[in-house]
Write a structure and sequence with these properties.
The chain is an alpha+beta fold and about 140 residues long. It has 2 helices and 9 strands, in the order H-E-E-E-E-E-E-E-E-E-H. It has one domain: Thrombin, subunit H. It has a 6-stranded antiparallel beta barrel with strand order 2-3-4-9-8-7. A hairpin with a 3-residue loop joins strand 3 and strand 4.
């Protein structure tokens, strides 16, 4: 019975990993802005931002390290909030809309302080996607 459970666990782990995009641990500067539903044109209105950096990146999402979980009075994890992330890559800035999916406060013993925020990419233009994918391919070649 225990052998069967072990085999099933290994199979689930293998199948689960195949569904996910590979993560690449890389530290890139990012700016995070909350897109308020009432603001229609974020390009024309200067929104407050939070600067941080990536912990890791994948084709479908990012893990960000930011110093706070709020921008002014707005909570990053607020229900219905969309976030705009501008990530600085060697190919230039990549802008994407993301949805926060989880966060955790980093412990004081860790080298980075603040919060680790996991986000899923929900919207990215074709041009930005191409820049991002080019960068991901380079990361894959480096191993």
């Amino acid at each position: 019975m225990e052998l069967t459970r072990s085999i099933i666990a290994l199979l689930r782990n293998f199948v689960g990993n195949r569904r996910r995009s590979p993560r690449h641990r890389v530290r890139l500067p990012v700016s995070v802005l909350i897109i308020e539903p009432k603001v229609r044109a974020p390009g024309r209105v200067r929104l407050p931002k939070l600067d941080g950096f990536t912990h890791d990146v994948s084709e479908s999402g990012l893990a960000l390290i930011v110093p706070a979980i709020r921008i002014n009075d707005s909570y990053l994890m607020g229900e219905g909030h969309a976030l705009l992330v501008v990530m600085e890559t060697p190919h230039g800035p990549v802008e994407m809309r993301v949805a926060p999916v989880r966060y955790e406060k980093l412990e004081r013993s860790e080298t980075d302080k603040g919060y680790l925020v996991g986000v899923q990419i929900t919207e990215i233009s074709e041009q930005e996607r191409e820049k991002f994918n080019t960068y991901l391919r380079e990361l894959m070649k480096k191993g």
